[in-house]
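SAMPLE LOG
Freezer: B-3
Tube label: C17
Construct: single chain, 520 aa
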Amino acid sequence: MESPDTSRPRSERSQDRFHGGLAAFIDHLKQEGLTESRIRCLRASARHFLIWLDQESIDIGVIDDAVLRRFRRHDCRCPRMEGERRKMLAGPSRQFASGALRLVRFFERSGRLQHLGELDDGLRLLDEFLAECAGRGYAADSLMGYRSACRHVLVWLHQSRIPMRRMDADVLERFVAHDCVCPGPFESPRKRLGGGRYVFPVEVFSRFLAGRGVLPAVASTTRNEVVDADLAAFGEWLRRHRGACEATIAHHLRRVAEMRPELGADPGRYNAASVREVLLRRFATASRPHARALATSMRMYLRFLAAGAKCLPTLVGAVPTAPGWRLRELPRYASAVDIERVIDSCDVTAPVGLRDRAILLLLARLALRAGDVVHLRLGDLDWEGARVRVCGKSRRETRLPLPQDAGDAVLDYIEHARPRIGEDRVSLTVRAPYRPFTSSNAITDVVIQALKRAGMGDVKPQGAYLFRHSAATNLLRAGASLDVIVALLRHRSPDTTVIYAKTDRPMLLEVAQPWIGAGR
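STRUCTURE (predicted):
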C-alpha cells in the first residue's frame, strides 16, 4: 500500500483528494447558467470548505447541519485562504458558506455522499399537500406561507440527518432554536415571531403525512407548555377554582415558571424575604403593567400552594404591590359619531366586511371584550328572546339584550358569509383553512383595520377596549347612571367603573375650584 505523501502541504493533499468532485461541481454550476463571477465565489467557498474538512479531520460522509454551522463560525486559520477569510469577516457568514452548502447538495445528488435524509421525497409530498390545500380553497398567500414554512423544515431535517418519521414536538423545538445555515431564501425561525409562524403549517402538514403513512397517526408537532406536575396542578386549580380562561392560565404559568427557579423547588421553604426579593428584582426592569402582572401571578401561585397546605397562607401578604396609582388617567374613547364611521367603513358586499361589521357592532353596542367575541358560540344567541349569553372573566355568565342592528348584522354574516364547517364558534376566518379565531389578537386586528379605513389610524387604544370605553363614556355623557354602566360592563365592583365619572370634561370644569394663585 502506497503511503501518503506527507511532505506536501495538507491543503494540496485535500485538493488532490477532492479534485474530481470539485471539478464536476464547477461543471454543474456552469450548466446551471451562473455568471463567471458567481461561479468563482462558489468555487472558492467550496474549496475552502474541503480544506477545512481535511484540516479538522472530518470525513465528508458525516457532514450534517452541525458541521456546516462549525464551518460557518470557525476562526479561520486555513492555509492560503486569506481572500476567503476577508470575505468571511466583511460579509454575512451565511453568504460565505453558500459554496459549501451547494457542494454538499451536489455530492448528495451525484452519489458521492450517502445521506440519511429524504428531501426529494419530502418536497414531492409537500407539493401534493399544497395541491390538496389549493383544492380546498386556500388563498394564494396562505399557500405561499405554508410552502415556505414546511419547505424550511424539510430542508433542515434533511441537512440534520433526521428522518421525516421522527418529526414531532421535540424535533420542531430544535428546528425553531437552530442557527440557520439552510440553503435557500430562509432565515432563522426565531426571527419570525419566535418560530410561531411555523407551528400551525407544520401541524397541518404533519396530519397530511400521517394520512400518507409517513408519520405515526399519534404524532404531533405541538407541545403542551405545561410539563411540570406542579405547574399542571396550578393550571387546573386556576381553571376549576378561579374560572380563568386558557389564555389567562397560560400567562400565569409562564410567569410563575420564570420565577420558580429562584424561589426553589420546595414551597415549604418559601419565606416573605425570598418572595419579595424575587419580585422586587424584576420590578426594577419591568414596565408598570408587567410588574402588576408578575405580582398577580405570584399571588395566585401562593394561594394555590396555601390551598394545598404546601406553604403558609400568610405568604400571600408578602407579595409587594407594584407601583401605580388608581384613576390616574382619563379613559380614552371615541365619539359616537366616530364609532359609527368606523362601523360603516366595512364593505358589506364582501364576506370579510359582513363578518367585521358584525364584530364591530357587538363591540360597540354591548361593550364586549375581545375574548367575549372570540368565544361567542352559535348556541349563545337566543334569537327568540333577543338575548346573547356572554361568559366573561372568571367564567361569569351574563345574558345581555341583543340590539336590533347588532342582531341583524350577526344573522346576515351567519347566513351569507360564515363558512359552512363543523364548528360552533361564531367568528371564523374568511379564507381557508377555515377555523375559529384563536386569540383576542384577531379581534384587535379587525378593529385596527377598521380604524385605518375610517381615517382614524392614530386613535388610541387600537383594540376592542376603544369600543368598550367609548360605549361607557358616551352613555355617561348622555345622562346614564353609573349603575347602568356597571351592568353593561359587567364589573364586579362599582369602584372599577368610577374612572368613567371623570370623563365629562365640561361638568368637571363646572365643579372644579379655581386655583388660588390665578389672581396673581
